[in-house]
């Protein structure tokens, strides 16, 4: 289900054929698991250092500059030029290419490390309502359409589309995803912004929001829905339902 943040709660429930009071049946869970896969980050093989280095030179402009450096070098030899000034131009070009490759390798290495750090934020288990009963299951077994209960302070097991807030205010810390310095307030209203970015999706709780979920004034319950499966995967489509339990539960 695309753009869950722009959909109404009845649309979400109808799309998955789930009753809010009962959750999915066992047959629905099995079908959704086959359709959407597991709620995990895709495991990618780490790229070796030398492959990263070579990758930085696999660019048309870089190849042109390398050829230009060698042409300049051989022209200097052919013209009988001597001294450091004769090879200044090719040396500068090669130094720039080396610096560019170093920056590229560092950037890609940091990106791989960031992905590994995101895995540390994945919830281990989730309390899910299926066939009218709550039970604890591995968070990786969640599927779109599941109704999940999460207590205050727990990690968010998947991206969630909230459907009901039974407290006066709900704020979460999503700095690891958006870079926002303060916790942000969440609300139920559908977002009508075209091509909404993460900050615009005020009815969504993201799986990297960690455990910093804050209820203000009345500590009670919040109802929501998982809008994507695949922990931290912003491309996997699908919506599940979430039931947030406050401290008073």
Could you describe the 3D structure shown?
With 249 residues, the protein is of the alpha+beta class. The chain has 2 domains: 4-42 and 124-245, Calcium-transporting ATPase, cytoplasmic transduction domain A (Distorted Sandwich), CATH 2.70.150.10; 49-120. 33% of the residues lie in helices and 20% in strands. The protein has 6 helices and 10 strands, in the order αααααβββββαβββββ. A 7-stranded mixed sheet has the order 2-1-3-10-9-4-7, with helices on one face. It has a 3-stranded antiparallel sheet with strand order 6-5-8, with no helix packed on it. Residues 215-220 and 229-249 have low confidence and may be disordered.
Features:
single chain; 249 residues; alpha+beta; Calcium-transporting ATPase, cytoplasmic transduction domain A; seven-stranded mixed β-sheet; 10 strands; 33% helix; elongated; disordered C terminus; ATP-binding; ATP binding
Provide the helix percentage: 25-40%
What is the β-strand count?
10
Q: H/E series, N to C?
A: HHHHHEEEEEHEEEEE
Overall number of structural domains: 2
CATH superfamily of the largest domain: Calcium-transporting ATPase, cytoplasmic transduction domain A
Strand order of the largest sheet: 2-1-3-10-9-4-7
Q: Strand content of the residues, in percent?
A: 15-25%
CATH hierarchy: architecture of the largest domain = Distorted Sandwich
Which overall shape is indicated by the principal axes computed on the Cα atoms?
A: elongated
Low-confidence stretches: 215-220, 229-249
What's the helix and strand layout?
Elements: H1 9-16, H2 26-36, H3 49-56, H4 60-78, H5 88-119, E1 125-130, E2 133-138, E3 147-151, E4 159-165, E5 169-172, H6 175-178, E6 184-186, E7 204-205, E8 213-216, E9 221-228, E10 241-245
């Amino acid at each position: 289900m695309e753009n869950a943040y722009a959909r109404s709660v009845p649309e979400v429930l109808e799309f998955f054929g789930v009753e809010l009071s009962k959750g999915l049946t066992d047959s629905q869970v099995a079908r959704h698991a086959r359709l959407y896969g597991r709620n995990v980050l895709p495991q990618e093989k780490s790229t070796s250092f030398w492959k990263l280095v070579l990758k930085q030179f696999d660019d048309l402009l870089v190849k042109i500059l390398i050829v230009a450096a060698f042409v300049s070098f051989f022209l200097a030899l052919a013209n009988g030029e001597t001294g450091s000034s004769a090879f200044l131009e090719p040396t500068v070009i090669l130094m720039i290419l080396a610096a560019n490759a170093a920056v590229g390798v560092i950037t890609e290495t940091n990106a791989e490390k960031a992905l590994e750090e995101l895995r540390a934020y994945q919830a281990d288990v989730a309390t899910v309502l299926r066939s009218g009963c709550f039970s604890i299951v591995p968070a990786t077994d969640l599927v779109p359409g599941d109704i999940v209960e999460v207590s205050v302070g727990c990690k968010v097991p998947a991206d969630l589309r909230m459907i009901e807030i039974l407290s006066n205010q709900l704020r979460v810390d999503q700095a690891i995803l958006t870079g926002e310095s303060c916790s942000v307030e969440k609300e139920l209203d559908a977002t009508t912004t075209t091509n909404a970015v993460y900050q615009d999706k005020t009815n969504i709780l993201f799986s990297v929001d960690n455990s910093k979920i804050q209820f203000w004034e009345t500590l009670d319950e919040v109802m929501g829905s998982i809008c994507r499966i695949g922990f931290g995967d912003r491309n996997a489509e699908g919506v599940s339902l979430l039931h947030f339990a406050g401290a008073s539960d």
